[in-house]
Amino acid sequence: MAIEYFYKFLFFVLLILFNFMQITVQENTVSFSFPLTSAPLSKNSSHKAVLRASLLSSQPRKALVQKPVPGSSSYNYKSAFKYSMALIVSLPIGTPPQTQQMVLDTGSQLSWIQCHRKSPKRPPPPPTTSFDPSLSSSFSVLPCNHPICKPRIPDFTIPTSCDQNRLCHYSYFYADGTLAEGNLVREKFTFSSSRSTPPLILGCATESAEAEGILGMNLGRLSFISQAKISKFSYCVPLRQGGVQTRPTGTFYLGQNPNSHTFQYISLLTFPQSQRKPNLDPLAFTVALLGIKIGGKKLNIPEAVFRPDAGGSGQTMIDSGTQYTFLVDTAYSKVREEVVRLVGPKLKKGYVYGGSLDMCFDGNPIEIGQLIGDMSFQFDKGVEILIGKERILDHVEGGVHCVGIGRSESLGVASNIIGNFHQQNLWVEFDTTNRQVGFGKADCSKTV
């Protein structure tokens, strides 16, 4: 991971004084679901949303969080999806719709799609590869004089600029050194002939190393859920066994989930402007983690480690766009200390996967999991995320299995992040109206 990019571009952010201008979005509420699939990403792909969040959190903000919106419409939809390392949603975008693949990411704000004109001289590519603006009657570009295209708008990690065509240009740099850049545009998500979102502000990427775009689902005013006025969504990540080649099927909802009566809810933490700090990301889905248990033993980690400190470091967020879980140094050290106590002689010495996971083994994963025992993340009201001993380790490559927890410092961030690996066999519901996150145990591989 190229952490140097963080420092290279952070100084741009710190020099910006931010003013805010209200964006008008239609008030119609929508509730939809989409077919999801997943694709193996690079080893560092799961880090990208994390670095993006850390860059945004380094900026002082004023009233960036979208206010809760009225409840979703009565139209509720669900769909099956495939899961490997990330959730990739297939979305119908434009008029008529073109199916686009986007990573479902609760840790980022701006949504963007791959935009490339289809050349008539070449065979047409698959419908999920790129978006052709010329084929959509609802597509429009944002000119440089648009209110959102101002260098002092804080919604972007790098200030927007005008390109040679006087169009609004954006750039995102990721933790592995890759770049996504293009123009800001407006486009509809067209789900049927009678149902679509209003035109939403998106990125139309012309340069990107990834095959998929991003569906930004955090609390920012430019996120998909904020612009489309979607107040509730949920997903059930199925248990993945046999490595990244296995793609079990789960379920995704936008709008009301009929299973929600079985969920246990915890409150989202909110941060008034007076509490905003340099390392805090107020747009994330932040929760109050109280502790971690391994093998029934609660580790000696102060609760304050999981809350933002004076500089904003230490917040705990639920992030679908990050594969593994990452903990700040104090918490991670306690977890690793306990793992070493239980199975230290079996550790693969000197091995680090993806620059982050260093609790790895060559031995029998079932045997090692039994020696470590169950793990749980504990929240208030008795709510917990329980990871059974059979799910402690993840197969990463060549017979090597690792505990799915890394040190946040390895990403250049100062937050605790619960990734999708530890959200398997669990309903996770995000409710922005009631400012809460719900969890419900489930066999996510079954139709629900």
From TrEMBL:
Family: Belongs to the peptidase A1 family.
Residues at the catalytic site: 105, 319
Signal peptide start and end residues: 1-26
GO cellular component assignments: extracellular region
CDD domains referenced in this protein's UniProt entry, alphabetically: pepsin_A_like_plant
Name this protein carries in UniProt: Aspartic ase PCS1-like
Key words, A-Z: Aspartyl protease, Glycoprotein, Hydrolase, Protease, Signal
Protein species of origin: Olea europaea subsp. europaea
The keyword Glycoprotein belongs to this UniProt entry's keyword annotation: yes
Tagged with keyword Hydrolase: yes
Pfam families per the UniProt record, alphabetical: TAXi_C (PF14541), TAXi_N (PF14543)
Domain called Peptidase A1: residue spans: 87-440
Molecular-function annotations in GO: aspartic-type endopeptidase activity
Phylogenetic classification of the source organism: Eukaryota, Viridiplantae, Streptophyta, Embryophyta, Tracheophyta
Biological process annotations from GO: proteolysis
